[in-house]
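Researcher: Re-running this chain for the archive, since the previous output was lost when a drive failed. Same request as before.
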Amino acid sequence: MDERLVDFYYMVYGRGCRVEGIKYGVKNQRRATKTAQVNGELWELSRKIRADSALFALTRGDRSGAEIFARLAEFPAFHAEFQCFLQRHGHRELDFDAYCPTWVEAPHIVLDQIKVLAALPEEANGAGETQRNPNSPRKIAAVEAELRLLALVPERLRYAVREIIRLARGYTELDDLEHYQTTRLTLPFRRALKALGERLKNKEFWTRRTIFISAPPLCVKAPCAPMPWRKFAGRWIGIRKAG
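Model: Regenerated structure tokens:
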């Protein structure tokens, strides 16, 4: 969202305006988000791996996250911290789709990410340093970029542009928080879908893999009367057997 602020300025005043570095700076002057917090914790876990030579050796090479997780109990201190991390953020996922498992259901996915981070040197975490240090070069550059942008705006419009920047950052943070919290519903939603599937399977509703296609609601003006589950499924779900 922040990127478009400079694009908007270009649209109004033309591409001839010199705003080198401003677009990058304004984009990167953001408040802490839940995503940044989670990424910071992933980075800290990767540093703990590097601090333990045996654990670091385990993550090296071609071992997958699943193989590392199978031996994680051999390192109780890290294993305990990793479990705490999953308790806090295990509802997150790699893809915003209930079909995909969450981190707590597939912890090896998280270990695959931490493994990549563990291979990086300390200086690679520029974003983490920016969050911890209020005087970091990136934060200073971001403030300077915003000031340069405002200097290019006519005085009578500066307040409006400053408000647009502030609201853009605020809504970016809110959008990130909303996504983080609503994904908590993925865990009970997946459990409910699994329970429904098991019940349908136990009723021998299908014997081969099937494809479900949602049908339009049939009861809009008046509530439906109770009906047997087979009739209900037949009326509300169109089913086509996969070949």
